[in-house]
Design goal:
Blueprint: H1 4-21, H2 28-46, H3 49-77
Length: 80
């Protein structure tokens, strides 16, 4: 069984492909809003009240880290 990261990326790729094949525009802001809502669900349903702010802070730090890492990679090898 694939890890969660892989499963999420496969779902995103499938949605991207379907959207583009249908000649539609990808609404990145809407997708990010949906990701944020899913993240909020995860935090609320799985963490104690006193842990939530630390989880959100950690997630924002990781997002920034991965954005920087991906930007460096794209600078070296180009965008996919």
């Amino acid at each position: 069984m694939a890890d969660l990261h892989t499963e999420i990326n496969e779902l995103i790729e499938m949605r991207l492909r379907r959207t583009l094949e249908a000649g539609q525009t990808i609404d990145v802001l809407d997708w990010i809003s949906q990701f944020a809502e899913s993240f909020a669900d995860l935090v609320v349903f799985s963490a104690l009240d006193e842990e939530r702010s630390k989880l959100v802070q950690h997630a924002l730090e990781r997002i920034q880290f991965f954005i920087l890492e991906k930007e460096k990679m794209f600078e070296q090898v180009g965008r996919p």
